[in-house]
Design goal:
With 250 residues, this protein is α+β, with helices and mostly antiparallel strands. The chain has one domain: 60s Ribosomal Protein L30, Chain: A. The chain is 22% helix and 28% strand. It has helices at 18-25, 39-45, 57-64, 119-134, 189-201, 239-242, and strands at residues 2-6, 33-38, 49-51, 67-69, 73-75, 78-80, 82-83, 86-87, 90-93, 96-99, 111-113, 139-147, 156-163, 168-170, 186-188, 210-214, 245-247. A hairpin with a 2-residue loop joins strand 5 and strand 6. The termini are far apart.
């Protein structure tokens, strides 16, 4: 399996064209490849940029969030929370646990970059564009971002949307090495590929916001648009912790 980094020019806020960048930079893509793209690229493509100074970031974070953690601190009528060693609003957005609704200021040239809207739909459009351009039958797109996980330092990659592949590898019913059938195990393909790819794409001035995974024989390509991947809070193993997040109040 190969991980092929794609160097591009800088995407320029407040709005730039990801298809022009793809045409300039993606020259060698093959059947069976998976293309990973950072969320920031698509946020800029959609014009999801707010000039720093034109908006209060905390209010913007809460506006963008689906749910927030409530605590004793408030911004206007909105409850927020303090975190150890600093200040951060903890949020759920698009079924993802992410600080600050995923809003980012790095490599943003004086703008807040918001997450793109309708990420799966955008991934599908890019996938179909590349399939047509390169005459491909099997191709998948994964949109990535960096996030943190509890009880670990540092950031790692996660997917925030995808198209063209089955996100899970199902081991249920298959035997372990002693013949015991597995009852619950499924492997998360999209987030695993996102984690490795974000590590290789980097976090600073690398200008490699896209990456091709080639030779991933475990990927099952599909045109199904709504795979059974996301879990509600009520069904989640971590429901006792996630229930501290509350719906935003009007």
């Amino acid at each position: 399996m190969e991980f092929i980094k794609i160097h591009t020019r800088a995407m320029l806020p407040p709005k730039d064209d990801v298809y022009k960048v793809i045409d300039e930079s993606v020259k060698d893509i093959k059947d069976g490849d998976v293309l990973l793209i950072t969320s920031k690229v698509l946020g800029i493509h959609q014009g999801r940029c707010v000039k720093i100074g034109d908006a209060d970031k905390d209010k913007l974070v809460i506006e963008e969030a689906d749910k927030v953690v409530t605590s004793h601190l408030k911004i206007g009528s909105k409850n927020i929370t303090n975190v150890p060693k600093g200040y951060m609003i903890l949020t759920l957005k698009d079924n993802t646990l992410i600080p600050a609704s995923g809003i980012d200021e790095s490599n943003a040239n004086g703008y807040y970059i918001l997450w793109p809207r309708e990420v799966n739909k955008q991934a599908k459009e890019i996938c179909e564009y590349l399939k047509k351009k390169f005459n491909l039958k099997k191709l998948a797109i994964i949109v990535t971002d960096s996030h943190t996980i509890p009880l670990r330092r540092g950031v790692m990659g996660i997917s925030i949307g995808f198209y063209g592949l089955n996100p899970l590898k199902d081991y249920r019913g298959k035997p372990d090495i002693f013949g015991r059938p597995l009852k619950f195990t499924t492997s998360n393909i999209v987030d695993t590929l996102a984690a490795m790819s974000v590590l290789l794409m980097g976090e600073a001035n690398e200008q490699t916001p896209m990456l091709i995974v080639r030779g991933a024989d475990f990927v099952e390509f599909t045109d199904k648009e709504n795979p059974d991947f996301l879990i509600s809070i009520e069904e989640d193993l971590y429901a006792p912790l996630l229930k501290v997040f509350e719906e935003k109040k009007a």
